Amino acid sequence: MFSNPGSTEVPFLALLPDDFTFILGLHEGSVVGMATGYAIALGTPALVLVHTTAGLGNAVGAIATARVNRAQLVIVVGQQDRRHLAFEPFLTGRLAGLAGGYPLDVLEPARGADVPAAIARAAFTAQQGRGPVIVIVPMSDWLEAAEPDAMAAAARVEVAPPGPSPAVREVAAMLADARNPALVVGAGMDTEAGWTASVELAQLLEAPVRLEPFGARAAFPQDHPLYRGQVPANRSRVRQAFRDHDVVLVLGTAVLRQYPYQEGPLFEAGTRVVVVTADPAEANRSPADLAIIGDPAALTADLSRELREQDLPAQSREPVSDVSAAPTVPPARPTADGPLHAADVFTLMAGLLGEDSVVVEESPSSRPALQAILPARRPLGFLSAAMGGLGFALPAAIGVRMALPERPVVAVMGDGSSLYCIQALWTAATTGTGVLFIVLANGGYAVMDRLAEQRNAKPAWPAFPEVSVRTLAAGFGVKAVRVDQHDHLAALLADVLPSLAQRTSPLLIEVGVVADSTFQP
After folding, report:
1. Does domain 2-150 have CATH number 3.40.50.970?
2. Does the pLDDT of residue 327 top 70, yes or no?
């Protein structure tokens, strides 16, 4: 259970059974962030407990991120004593709508005896909808007697997989007839089954594979010869990237997330687009010729099977155009002199991180370099915030490491990003969670600066070179060092990274870097 409790939660926690593991966070954003990482890593619901209006309000941004990252959370929110709620006593919360439309559901049990069933139903909903569910529980309800006959929830729910989709044959024929098909993979394919299925289909079609724009997970081995990097995040560059492809198959996401608005279509006329996703909302909003709702990994495997069984004659493929070339890797620095750049840090990491490592990213200005230099080679090898709001990577990395203690976990953040949930460092220190936090300190908001420059404008916001993340980390009990020289960083990473999987305490390395001069997601 991940929590930052208050007085409305005391009746529950005072009787907490010994088989619960209680993880204390010092801010609700950190609490929900850690639970999100934990739930994503295990693929099962995580339990969160927060304190009435203040706690839920503090958590809303992280709840939004959990929804878009498809994290299964059951969030119990404490409320004042039911017996005098009508009088709005101190700490009464108007809670039902506080998180807006981001929870899958908000449950308010009618009486204390209904609380266990409500929490059970919340867990089922979180699993089925892959998102957060809120349960509001007045503090007096925990003291009510349980009623076994009031358990309005199944002991177990299994969703039976559907039979083969008739649309699979149609898509298989479309792919077999395609002159130059392309694949786009999204977070819904970031499982062992998803990776296996997407690799099999890509190799069968000899089709290039790209990651969805702002992909929060890798969904395909990024060191594979057919991998071509991330889809651009504006329409003109999307059209350029796919101009030579007559069929685009999008797996495990929608078509296609953008960032700056541009006029015009996503694809050139004549390009046929098919979407396969488990999320009806993604399917419904996609500008596609056909959208299929179902398990994308299973349906992708069905496509490969159909292509083989039907022995459909594959057309001769055209060579992949230059715009679909593999992601560009920034050149290595010729010497160790001069200030460090983010690419220098990633280059040093690349030779030391094992393929089972999990890189949790929140350094927006240097993300393209990170993805080019540190390819994900296993499912969950890369994790980022799908929502775009900052404050995810630091607590999420802690949750991932708690869930998967056998895998090395590195959080790569900007100094600005690290400040949003810096309190989570205390939890890492007190629980002995061995995450390596690398903070790229450029003393400002580099992405904001670049966006202002693109408008020929002067940034209205100041830089913050005085902020020392190393000092803050030390204040939370985490060992932390500041590095400004290439040789020092190289030696430190060579000492830490090979044994990161065995580490039982967190370490933060604040690296002074020059801000990236361009930003083009």
Report:
1. yes
2. no
